[in-house]
Amino acid sequence: MEAMLNARNLVIGVVALAVVGVGGFYGWTHYGPGAVPALSDDPALAGLPAPVDSPFAKVMDGDMVLGDANAPITFIEYSSLSCPHCARHHKEVLPEIKKNYIDTGKVKLVVRDFPLNGPAVQASLLAHCVSPLAYWGMTEQLFATQAQWVNDQSLPVLASMAAAAGINGQDFQQCLNDKAAKDKIIASAENADKAFKVDSTPTFVVNGIVVKGEKTYADFAKIFDALAPKAN
């Protein structure tokens, strides 16, 4: 029987292991009650849970946001940089969403941390160590190279990636020890747990509607198109 842990305890634990260099290479999932499905006349929204009325369904200070800040649909992604489903989403689905919805001002993307193991914490700290403009490229690189660093010897590979981005060894270690960045990662996971019952990655929140698991571009397009009239 699995131990039931809350998100704060999980991330505190893996952050501690990651920073001391152990790596904390283990996965974690907890299973909580799902949201109650909402009744909707729109087939595209049928079976999805009712929107969650939470400030975390909107852009918060310090969020990493891609797209027009005034876009009517807020598309939040909770992901772990070590998650293969998240990597596939970024490779195969997100580019089409970006082209057709983000770049056209219909949707803004918010990416929030929900690391599931030590290497993912280290990778998140690296991503937040580069400039905000370089953050998106770094996260895509981390997703694309998971096979190289998602293991119990992640630090040397991540250090090499940091060096390629202009971050020397001493600065990389400072990134790993950055208390403010670690606190932000812990808060991201804790708030995801409290507000949306996030228990796996990827989990998405679209204008407050929680969408769990990997979805196709067509799945998201239907949701965005159904929400567009309501968002305007």
Structure in words:
The structure is a single chain. This protein is an alpha+beta fold and 232 residues long. It has one domain: Glutaredoxin (3-Layer(aba) Sandwich). It contains 9 helices and 5 strands, in the order αββαβααααααββα. It has a 5-stranded mixed sheet with strand order 1-3-2-4-5, sandwiched between helices. Helix 3 runs antiparallel to helix 4. The chain starts with 6 loop residues before the first helix and ends with a helix. Mean pLDDT is 87; it is low at 26-39. It holds the Pfam family Thioredoxin_4.
Short descriptors:
232 residues, alpha+beta, Glutaredoxin, 5-stranded mixed beta sheet, 11% strand, globular
What are the SSEs and their pairings?
Layout: H1 7-19, E1 64-66, E2 73-79, H2 84-102, E3 107-113, H3 118-129, H4 132-144, H5 146-149, H6 154-164, H7 169-176, H8 179-196, E4 203-206, E5 209-212, H9 217-231
Parallel strand pairs: 2-3
Antiparallel strand pairs: 1-3, 2-4, 4-5
Give the percentage of residues in beta strands.
5-15%
Spans with pLDDT under 50 lasting ≥5 residues? 26-39
Query: SS-based structural class?
Result: alpha+beta
Mean pLDDT: 87
The whole-angstrom Rg is 17 Å
Report the end-to-end length measured between terminal Cα atoms: 47 Å
Number of helices: 9
What is the H/E order? HEEHEHHHHHHEEH
Largest sheet: 5 strands, mixed
Report helical residue fraction.
40-55%
Overall number of strands = 5
CATH class: Alpha Beta
Q: Would you identify the CATH H-level superfamily?
A: Glutaredoxin
The strand order across the widest sheet is 1-3-2-4-5
Q: Sum up the overall morphology in one term.
A: globular
The second-level CATH architecture is 3-Layer(aba) Sandwich
CATH topology: Glutaredoxin
Number of domains: 1
Function: May be required for disulfide bond formation in some proteins.
Keywords: Membrane, Transmembrane, Transmembrane helix
Protein name: DsbA family protein
Domain Thioredoxin: 44-229
